[in-house]
Write a structure and sequence with these properties.
This protein is α+β, with helices and mostly antiparallel strands. Helices cover about 40% and strands about 25% of the residues.
């Protein structure tokens, strides 16, 4: 659950922005007033829980739950208005103080490397793919030749024995059964110390 102070700040921000954006949210006056009343009750209950009874704390959590429901209704209202006006949807969502959902693939690199915890080590991380094995290779001669570092069921491995200030190239390939996929682009890596 979102911490109550965070919920109140975010909730007040959304209410304020939707009230200010009357162009888009003309039909939301009753919903906004109901949400503001629920928020005011929640904020008023917070000081009573510091030195209050168990019942005071339960009341605060019930008021928080009630406000969260009303806030969710406001967000859904803003979504409906945005969906009904596709040309203005980004503006409507922003006017409500919300973030637009982005569909698509998360941009995760195929292969990355970072300094390991132990001296002379690096952590190689391959973009994971279910049901595959991962072949990791390294080159110390600028990519002329590669040697296998690991053949693993894990998408992340630790490579040891690396010298400081020496340039390494790492690459990886997916393996399914006896079929090996293409190698990733070489990933350059050097330990600074």
């Amino acid at each position: 659950m979102t911490p109550i102070p965070t919920l109140t700040v975010i909730g007040q921000s959304i209410i304020n922005k939707m009230v200010a954006a009357t162009t888009y949210f003309t039909g939301a006056a009753t919903l906004l007033a109901t949400a503001q009343t629920a928020l005011n009750l929640l904020v008023a209950s917070i000081p009573h829980t510091v030195d209050g009874t168990k019942e005071d704390t339960q009341t605060m959590y019930l008021l928080a739950k009630d406000f969260k429901v009303k806030l969710t209704i406001l967000v859904l209202y803003a979504d409906v208005v945005a969906i009904s006006n596709p040309d203005l949807s980004a503006s409507i969502i922003a006017a409500a103080g919300l973030l637009e959902k982005r569909n698509g693939v998360i941009n995760i690199p195929q292969l990355s490397a970072k300094r390991g915890v132990a001296p002379g080590t690096a952590i190689l991380r391959r973009k994971a793919k279910r049901g595959f094995m991962y072949l990791f290779e390294q080159s110390v001669d600028g990519g002329l030749t590669y040697t296998a570092v690991a053949n693993s069921t894990k998408a992340a491995i630790v490579v040891g024995g690396l010298a400081p200030l020496k340039m390494y190239l790492f690459r990886s390939a997916l393996i399914k059964g006896s079929v090996q996929g293409d190698y990733t682009a070489p990933f350059p890596f050097a330990l600074t110390t």
